[in-house]
Amino acid sequence: MAKKLILIEGKEDIKNLEKQITDESIVVCFDYESHEKLSIKNLKHNKLDDYLSNVDEEHIDQKAVELTTNWYKDNTVKKYLEYDGINLGKLLEIELIWYFFEYTKRIGGIIKILEKEKPDEIVVSFLGNCVEAVCQNSKIKIQKFPSKITSSLFFDNIEIPIKINGKIIPIKISRKNFLRIRNILSKITDAVFKVKPNKKQLQSKKSILLLDYNISIYNELIKELSKSKKNILLLNQRRPVIWNLSSLKNLRNSKCKIIELSDFLDEPLKLQIQEKQRELEGKLKELWSNDETFSKIISFNNYSFWNAIKENFIQLTTRRFIESIEKLILLNKLFNAVDISVILEWAHVGLEDKLAINAANKNKIPNLFLQHGMYLQNEKFDKYLPILPIIPSNNSKHLVWGKTLENYIIEKGGNSKQIIKIGSPRYDKFFREHESKKKSNTILLASNGFFHNNCKGTDIEAFIRMESYVRKIIETIKKYPDKKIIVKLHPGKVSYDIKPLIEKIDPSIQIFQNENILDLLEKSDVMISLNYSTVVLDALILEKPSLILLPEEQNFENEIPLKNKTVLMTSKVEEIENMVKNLLEDKKVQRELIENGKKFVDEYIVNQGDSSKKLAKILEDYE
Question: What is the DSSP string of 557-598?
Fold first, then answer.
């Protein structure tokens, strides 16, 4: 009997391929979503990760980084992508790492599955192009069912938090619609509230430009900057400046003004942009015809998967490159029209940030970027340093929270002259105003995203462990009738949303998403986090004893705060009940965690409660 292999990824594949599954067929799922659906239907299956060794996974991870940071550097390719001193391919690194990793894992996984299972026939839908890439020289029969699903880049969809009935609900819209809606809302908001600067303001004095800042989280910094003699301008291209009444109030109580790149668009410039975009489209059309070159570049273990991604990749990148031309021309117009003394940016590695840095350098405008999280420092993540916002690049200076990150950057080859220890404006209010309050009997359960750009962060077993954690935590805490659970979801895009699971287990549990986690922590006695992230530091600053659960095998236990025993931690479900008991009942454990946490925070963050004032002074003094 012929050996039939069925490969499944995503819930649509279940619909397409379920009828093909028999007792004799070998079914392999590539993601947690398909595993979950197959499990619910009691359909026997294997998991992709079972076929990959640790060596295989590391090879896949490394190849994804290599593709992300090198495809556009090929001599045949780069001449088509050069524009105004920048290689357009470099702009997309932070988004393409996810894209290339997904495909590299699919290709690497299929290779390993075929080596072990040696099928005569493969039945496939979404993964059809990847299977064809691996099997192009084999005699394996491929039965391919059509799929409507296509891959996308990370910022192809934008989440806008909307407050409805007192709760903040994230609304997902396409990038194209977001840009269109934002321009309309910008005009309406300015007409009603006069949030844009007038020309006299811009021409009469110098300006400080902030890129993509959340004015609610950085309200302390906004207040201090409002004392400046300079104009304070906000240019947000990935997030709306005003998204609720609180953000509007913060803006109106400051001297900050909103600007949009479209404010600098006139008819002659519009014609220039269209001409440059047509020129680029012609170059790109010629570039994408180089199949032989791309077949060599886009490959893994000598299997080219260029044909598997070609149509999708061309569509995604071309759209971004064309968009970049308009942004870059308008940025240059902005920097010529407005006397900007310094730029303070938030993300550093996004497309918009890289374009702004390039235009700033061209116009000799200094650029600073602010540390916005507790970055990973264990060696497993060293390979990602070229695409993460850690090492200062392209003449920028990094404003770090303290000595710990400064030492790490220097150790990894960063220039000490490009680092300024400033502290964290985000935490100023909490350092100044935090007080030990009476017990609220509230436990904050913090849900965090996985590191979805590598194999361990997409391992189906990691998602299974996380689900087990949630069930065990809720089961354990229910043994304390006086305790209340509240849940804080990760505010951004995540690999797996636990909200439906929590609502299924106990619909009475209150769930938050875009609210400030520091405000929720202040109302809680302790925190339990479903993964390692900056929430660890949040809890340490507010002196909240914490338990960190580690579903991913990412060496998080080697991160500095965990090594310094500032929190309880485990990856084992069977240890959770005892650890929760220690967290809630053992006063000695609580005191030790708080004391160790204070030591770490004092070493990690300088200018506690005063960093906004220090940073505002630095920005004011730039000429």
Answer: GGSHHHHTT-SEEES-GGGHHHHHHHHHH-HHHHHHHHHHHH
Beta-carbon count within 10 A of 204 CB: 10
Distance, CA of 20 to chain centre:
37
Alpha carbon 143 to its chain's center: 36
The burial of 309, by beta-carbon neighbours within 10 Å (0-12 exposed, 13-18 middle, 19 or more buried), is given as buried
Alpha-carbon distance of 576 to 570, in angstroms, equals 7
Determine the Cα–Cα distance for residues 217 and 210; give it in Å rounded to an integer. 14
End-to-end Cα spacing for the chain: 78
Instruction: Say whether pLDDT at 154 is over 60.
Output: no
Q: Which amino acid is at 284?
A: L
Q: pTM above 0.85?
A: yes
Edge-to-edge order in the sheet of strand 46-47 = 46-47, 26-29, 4-8, 121-124, 141-144
d(CA 602, CA 579): 26
> Are 571 and 552 in contact, with CB atoms under 8 Å apart?
no
Tell me the pLDDT tens digit for each residue of 278-302. Answer: 999 999 999 999 999 999 999 999 9
**Mean pLDDT over each residue of the chain, to the nearest integer:** 92
Q: How far from 264 is each of 11, 196, 324, 331, 387, CA to CA, in Å?
A: 45, 13, 16, 9, 30
pLDDT of residue 490: 83
Helix, strand, coil shares, percent, the chain, to 5: 50, 15, 30
75 CB burial (10 A radius; 0-12, 13-18, 19+): exposed
Q: Could you tell me which residues come within 8 angstroms of residue 263 by beta carbon, excluding any fewer than 6 positions away?
A: 196
Locate 182 and state its tokens: 């934002």
What is the tens place of the pLDDT at every residue in 501-510?
999 999 999 9
pLDDT, tens only, 77-127: 999 999 999 999 999 999 999 999 999 999 999 999 999 999 999 999 999
Total Cβ atoms within 10 A of residue 424: 30
Write the pLDDT tens digit of every residue in 368-381: 999 999 999 999 99
Cα–Cα nearest to 170, from 515, 516, 517? 515
